[in-house]
């Protein structure tokens, strides 16, 4: 008798006295096989420690039991890691595997859409953290792959997102409610077209809130940082101004936390000298006392996974466009307008 490590479907078939095709059907629970035969095949398979591969079983049903995530940012970032954790947890409950595809720069992106490694490898694809071009979207549609967008909304495609405009609007309204009028918005510019779009929508939310409050252009200060670690760029920009803002709204907690450190190093402390509010509710935001606009990333990931599972099963989602609300969380870095001595 073959050892456990070398048992094959043919071995199970021979000992059970059936064909290989019958073994395959029986182990997949096919109604074409009688209960008696199924029980006999299962007993032999257990004796040999044989299990039909999930991939092979899935192919027979037209499904692979895998969902892919195409993500456009480094996997070690807070957002990427949190999203992937949530997607994995929801897929695991459905006994579905997760396959990750990264496209964090133009070279990886071109390679992905040239080779299309998702072809015949996943049942559905979650596209997270960057926008597909029309050509890229058509390329995926051409192979019949169901898509789910995460962190963005696309007409006609199932999606899960937050309202970046409204979230920022609420955060800036909070600063205005504390008495601030001269407010700066700090935007991250990664110079990667198609990868970052939330930041632009957050700028829009900033202007909407300032418009509502009747704040003129002269009191709206737009700052740009080349990457989330460029807190020193923010600090130097504020330090160089003769009439600096009394508050900053920053488009991510990563950048806001780095800016707080850099500002402190040049003697500018929040909220004594300057209020700062971020966006995300990063894992470190609470520890550092950062006020922020919180987005529930675990909810985003779970909802995207549920949409992907529905599409992979060939079903139509009841709610294909999921909008997850944000909330303002005030901690230690925001306060009333500071009284400043003339420079």
UniProtKB/TrEMBL annotation:
Alphabetized CDD domains for the sequence: HTH_LacI (cd01392), PBP1_LacI_sugar_binding-like (cd06267)
Gene3D superfamilies: 3.40.50.2300, lambda repressor-like DNA-binding domains
PANTHER family (alphabetical): HTH-TYPE TRANSCRIPTIONAL REPRESSOR PURR-RELATED (PTHR30146:SF148), LACI-RELATED TRANSCRIPTIONAL REPRESSOR (PTHR30146)
Pfam families referenced in this protein's UniProt entry, alphabetically: LacI, Peripla_BP_3
Domain of life from the UniProt record: Bacteria
Keyword terms of this UniProt record: DNA-binding, Repressor, Transcription, Transcription regulation
Any one GO MF annotation of this record: transcription cis-regulatory region binding
Residues in HTH lacI-type domain copies: 7-61
InterPro entries: HTH_LacI, LacI/GalR-like_sensor, Lambda_DNA-bd_dom_sf, Peripla_BP_I
SUPFAM superfamilies tied to this protein: lambda repressor-like DNA-binding domains (SSF47413), Periplasmic binding protein-like I (SSF53822)
Record-given protein name: DNA-binding transcriptional regulator, LacI/PurR family
Lineage: Bacteria, Bacillati, Actinomycetota, Actinomycetes, Propionibacteriales
């Amino acid at each position: 008798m073959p050892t456990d490590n070398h048992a094959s479907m043919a071995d199970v078939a021979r000992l059970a006295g059936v064909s290989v095709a019958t073994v395959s059907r029986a182990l997949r629970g096919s109604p074409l096989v009688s209960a008696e035969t199924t029980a006999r095949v299962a007993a032999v398979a257990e004796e040999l420690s044989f299990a039909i591969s999930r991939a092979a079983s899935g192919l027979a049903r037209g499904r692979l039991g895998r969902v892919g995530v195409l993500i456009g940012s480094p996997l070690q970032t807070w957002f990427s890691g949190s999203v992937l954790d949530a997607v994995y947890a929801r897929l695991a409950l459905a006994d579905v595997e997760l396959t990750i595809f990264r496209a964090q720069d133009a070279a990886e992106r071109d390679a992905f859409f040239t080779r299309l490694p998702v072809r015949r490898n996943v049942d559905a694809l979650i596209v997270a953290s960057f926008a597909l071009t029309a050509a890229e979207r058509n390329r995926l549609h051409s192979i019949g792959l169901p898509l789910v967008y995460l962190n963005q909304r696309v007409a006609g495609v199932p999606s899960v997102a937050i309202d970046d405009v409204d979230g920022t609007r609420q955060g800036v309204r909070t600063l205005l409610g504390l008495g601030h009028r001269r407010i700066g918005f700090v935007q991250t510019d990664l110079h990667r077209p198609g990868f970052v779009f939330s930041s632009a929508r957050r700028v829009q939310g900033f202007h909407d809130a300032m418009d509502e409050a009747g704040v003129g252009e002269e009191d709206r200060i737009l700052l740009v940082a080349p990457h989330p670690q460029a807190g020193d760029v923010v600090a130097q920009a504020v330090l160089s101004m003769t009439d600096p803002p009394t508050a900053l709204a920053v488009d991510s907690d990563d950048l806001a936390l780095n800016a707080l450190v850099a500002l402190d190093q040049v003697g500018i402390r929040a909220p004594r000298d300057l209020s700062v509010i971020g966006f995300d509710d990063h894992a470190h935001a609470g520890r550092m006392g950062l006020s922020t606009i919180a987005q529930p990333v675990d909810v985003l990931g779970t909802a995207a996974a549920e949409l992907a599972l529905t599409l992979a099963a060939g079903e139509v989602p009841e709610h294909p466009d999921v909008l997850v609300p944000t909330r303002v969380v005030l901690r230690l870095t925001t306060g009333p307008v500071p009284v400043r001595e003339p420079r």
